[in-house]
Amino acid sequence: MIKSFFLLLLSSTFIHAELRVVTDFEGGNAEVVVLDQAAGRLRIMPALRGGRGWPCWWFLRLDGTSAGQKINLEVQAQTKPYRPETVLAAAWCQPDQAVLSHDGKTWKQTAKAERSADKVAVYQVQAEGPSLWLAWGPPFVPSTAETVLAEVKEKLGDEAERFELAKTRDGRPVNGIRIGKADAPRQVWVNARQHAWEAGGAWVGRGFVEWIASAEAQDFRKRCCVHFIPIMDVDNVTLGAGGKESLPQDHNRDWSEAPYHPEVAAAQKRIAQIQAAHGLDVFMDLHNPSAGDRAPFFFGPFGFERMTGLQRENYQRWMDLAAAHISGPLKVEPKYRYATYVKTEEERARMSSGWARAHGGEGTISITLETAWNTPHSTAENYMVVGAQLARALDAYLKEARH
Ligand SMILES: [Zn+2]
Fold this sequence. Notes:
By secondary structure, this protein is α+β, with helices and mostly antiparallel strands. It has 10 helices and 17 strands. Helices cover 30% and strands 21% of the residues.
């Protein structure tokens, strides 16, 4: 009798293991609003990381689930301001489809969220075992970047050189890799993740650098040198903070004469050296846009319509090649957009793209790729396809001699 009582207790404990939200890992972020054990209902909002920008990214592990258990994940906007008197709109933390994983490694999109009148997105998900990972989008953290850089170096040997760009203000390494000969006639700089929440941009970067390291790019590597930084804002990515509009300085407004972030200062120094020694052909910055942008697009140079000669020719040729190559499933818009929401010349000059334009040569092009994250195609795999297509466009662009 007593024995069967304990067995009963044991089995009911097994069935009703306590659900627990865990976020103490790289990129983890969630503030629990409600956790209803009986109903399997979890309400979260992205946790505020004081001064570290937009509370939009979230990434958690739910422990204590059982195979087949249904969970209602509700996501609402953070209620506290991230800047004085500024609360972030809910749309930034509520993709139509979030992502889930049963092993913390492979991610797939959830079903489309249902949205309530009070601006809560509800994702219905199902566990397959004792843990369920849930995130805003496929996570890409410093350990992911480390794996990519190590694999590329391993594959290319002497054709590649890893480097530490800088240590962040919190002392974390910002790593990069140079592929091709340092004194190659054509030079390219690509960085991702100036905004920590924009994980999709880092996946595009991965697809890009893996194509550059592939057998298909053997000829490219003889002619061109690529300098690649997979994650610029390592601190905020590690902490699961949004980074955008962080205080005192957003990374992509920090490209001044006296940058606050050591990694921005170090990037400026290296780019200036490349320009002085060989001439910089292409500067590219990888981002993700807003929830309503359903296709990737490039931000081009302000005043493009008034440009003439070589500059205009190069920017137009880039756009044509990019549109031909980035052809789907995430198909790029065939015309530049302009970041006109940045109002002053002074602020525009402090964006990486503006800085690179000002410090490059007449033939340099400096562009920003914004890859759409709020579509059914916005998966890690498809982001990497965009990256490979971007690299093929670059290959085609650099096949023509520099004017
Ligand atoms: Zn951005």
